[in-house]
Amino acid sequence: GHGPDMCLMIQTDPTKSDQLLSDYLYDQTAEYQQLALDSNFIYGLRERCLDPSEFGGYMVDDSVYCYEVLKSLKIAAGRCSDNTTLRKFLNSKAESWRGVGARSCNTWHIKSADGIKLGDPASKLHRPYQECSRK
Fold first, then answer.
1. Rg of the Cα trace of the chain?
2. Are 13 and 25 in contact (CB under 8 A)?
3. Which of 14, 48, 78, 91 is surrounded by the fewest CB atoms within 10 Å?
4. What is the DSSP string of the chain?
5. Mean pLDDT lowest for which of 93-97, 121-125, 131-135?
6. Long-range residue pairs from 69-73, CB within 8 A, at least 24 positions apart, any chain
């Protein structure tokens, strides 16, 4: 059928029955999920040893992330001139990200996320956990 109850199915393996796209994407990203779980941020939260300044840095990163998602959704909505439903949906999602980003910026006293330049994000995923293990 069509409408809100419709699920996107994808045939990924002829030996399997149809698989939900969300299940397929989950399966295909297992490596990245594990990297996230093993990241310094998650480890530090779990072990209660994340430095407060480092936590703040992650929150500033999140503010920039929200800003970038908002920009991407607005660009995508602008390209949907022939699909009013999709354009409205993307604009609606952009506005919800605007709210999340505004709350984050307000909490961390950030005037404008577009002025923040991030470093190498991969370096945060591969930091050793030695600081926590010493405590």
1. 19
2. no
3. 14
4. --STT---EE---TTS--EEHHHHHHHHTHHHHHHHHTSHHHHHHHHT---HHHHHHHHHHHHHHHHHHHHHHHHHHHT-TT-HHHHHHHHHHHHHHHHHHHHHHHHTT-S-GGG-----HHHHHS---HHHHT-
5. 131-135
6. 69/97, 69/101, 70/94, 70/97, 70/98, 70/101, 73/97
